[in-house]
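Re: the request from the purification team.
They wanted to know what the chain is likely to look like in 3D before they choose a buffer screen. I agreed to run a prediction and write the result into the notebook, where they can find it.
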Amino acid sequence: MASSGRYIMGQVMKRGIGRDNTLKVRCLQMKLDTYLNKYFNERKHIWAKEYEVKCNVGDIVLLQEMSELKIPRITHDIKEVVFPLGMVVDPITGRRCRGTEYIDESNRKLEAEKIATEKSL
């Protein structure tokens, strides 16, 4: 699927049962349907190993293929967490967003304070 040195992005689906440092990552690859002359998403599930990078289920991560396979099923290393779950950032503006709308950070802090005062009452 990927040659050595190439990077792939994917979403963490689950952790390995026997080994806590292994993760199942879903990657999307575009495949051409020659009859319709249209590209469609094809899901691939890859097992990856995390060393110093700690990630959670749902995070978007960057993977790199291992140079040598120690375990046949685990083929990639996790290089970094690109987007943690719940912290969606627009790559162009650098602002946090929810769906198609930007989150106003000043209003967000005011709402958090208001909720905290309501809970204390």
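For the purification team: Residues 26 and 45 are 5 Å apart (CA to CA).
Please add any questions underneath this entry.
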